[in-house]
Amino acid sequence: xxxxxxxxxxxxxxxAGKSTVVFKAIxxxxxxxxxxxxxxxxxxxxxxxxxxxxxxxxxxxxxMVANDELLEHAEYVANCYGTPRAYVEQRLAEGMNxxxxxxxxxxxxxxxxxxxxxxxxxxxxxxxxxxxxxxxRGTDTESAIEGRLIRARQEYQEADFYDYLIVNDDLxxxxxxxxxxxxxxxxxxxxxxxxxxxx
Amino acid sequence: xxxxxxxxxxxxxxxAGKSTVVFKAIxxxxxxxxxxxxxxxxxxxxxxxxxxxxxxxxxxxxxMVANDELLEHAEYVANCYGTPRAYVEQRLAEGMNxxxxxxxxxxxxxxxxxxxxxxxxxxxxxxxxxxxxxxxRGTDTESAIEGRLIRARQEYQEADFYDYLIVNDDLxxxxxxxxxxxxxxxxxxxxxxxxxxxx
Lengths: 199, 199
Prior knowledge:
The structure is a homodimer of 199-residue chains. Chain A has a single domain (7-198), classed as Rossmann fold (3-Layer(aba) Sandwich), CATH 3.40.50. Helix content of chain A is 43%, strand content 21%. The first copy, chain A, contains eight helices and nine strands. A five-stranded parallel sheet of chain A has the order 2-7-1-8-9, with helices on both faces. Chain A has a four-stranded mixed sheet with strand order 4-3-6-5. In chain A, a hairpin with a 2-residue loop joins β5 (70-76) and β6. Chain A starts with 6 loop residues before the first strand and ends with a helix. Chains A and B meet through β8, α6, β9, α7 and α8 of A and β8, α6, β9, α7 and α8 of B.
């Protein structure tokens, strides 16, 4: 019996180290993949439809929204991005755990559409540390950094419907926690009805 | 900040290997202990009050029940057994994860009294395998074995309020799953309100 995968929604402030934690956790695992989004923006040179994104027209995107074909969607710099439900469902049915790296508002939509999704918030050890990391990257202007800090604080308030919080003060530990969450979620009693019926 | 421990309620049919899985999981960990029950039965030679059990009179036990001092209680061979709430609360406050090995009915009482308890059911890979294990032990009569199998099937039906199911088909794997569940439960978003308030 192929066990269904889990949809893992990962959120957290820019600079919390979300991608680093996820990449560390999935090292050597072949049962985790990232979701592929649909977008209305044009492909950049080298991007392949269905690999980086599913590239769709604005009309098709509106249709997907109207038909409930997206688990969540958002607008960013005049382009639309969304997570195709059918694609995610297919990967889950194949036994893959699917990672979705989205903001809190998108996670809220996913929770409504797929209540069994696992919502994980990754936070830096403190806002002071986040500020240090953002400055250390040297990519943001002073006002952008201030904006990100205000946004982070706001996200903490909004994220109360998440299932888990991982405080990324140690990469190894944070990655282990993410893997433990995946392992534990696969032990959910509700997922074992077939086993219990057969016994 | 000392993080509060988790109350881990472990149930499962006799022969599922509950104790073996728990002992394997806590090897080398000093943050897990078993709970100590109160009982009305007399101490056996060598048993120390507060170590094997809290030995109490029948009158005192009734009082504990009346005063809601027990997280759960049951009667077994004309003696009463129960889990003192104050004792468990104290160990949890010390940061210990407390293991409670009890039957489904007791777990139901714990869930009502302490909704944040983590309920874990440990099952054998199949009822055929359970039967083989029970026969292999050579300690039960034929009718006792049949009784245990009927009881196991019944427990599966009643256990639908548990959080997790661990299928013990491989000791190492089962112990890892138990540890993953403990790790994941310590990442519960709701446990981090102090962290979020401070940030």
